[in-house]
């Protein structure tokens, strides 16, 4: 049986993959809302900090062609367990759309609610 920390690592990696699948999809907002805490913050390159304070503004900011990629992959992935209810996933992300490549470092902080569900608290990307 996997240890508690191994299960947390697996849960957080699955959530991170779900986030990036959403971020790179044609319509990311619904999936991002589902994955996130209502107080979540998003720091994307060359953009103001996004929150859910103005839901319509958030939807407008993440609609295509925002982060619309054909494929992405993680490199240098680290899962940092802060405690049994919080963790951070850091990685290098390589994504492509046609012949254009996007390379960034990424950090996502996840927290676990009393219902046991992991939700995104903060996400940041830095272009490399």
From TrEMBL:
Domain DUF4440: 14-119
InterPro entries for the chain: DUF4440, NTF2-like_dom_sf
Superkingdom in the source lineage: Eukaryota
TM spans (from-to): none
One Pfam match: DUF4440
Any coiled-coil regions, as ranges: none
Name of the protein in question: DUF4440 domain-containing protein
UniProt lineage: Eukaryota, Fungi, Dikarya, Ascomycota, Pezizomycotina
């Amino acid at each position: 049986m996997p240890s508690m920390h191994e299960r947390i690592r697996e849960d957080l990696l699955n959530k991170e993959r779900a986030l990036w699948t959403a971020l790179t999809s044609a319509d990311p907002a619904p999936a991002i809302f589902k994955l996130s805490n209502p107080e979540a913050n998003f720091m994307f390159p060359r953009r103001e900090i996004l929150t859910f304070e103005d839901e319509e503004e958030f939807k407008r900011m993440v609609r295509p062609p925002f982060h619309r990629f054909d494929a992405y992959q993680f490199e240098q992935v680290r899962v940092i367990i802060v405690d049994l209810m919080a963790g951070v996933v850091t990685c290098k992300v390589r994504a492509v759309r046609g012949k254009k490549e996007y390379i960034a470092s990424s950090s996502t902080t996840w927290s676990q609610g009393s219902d046991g569900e992991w939700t995104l608290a903060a996400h940041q990307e830095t272009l490399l």
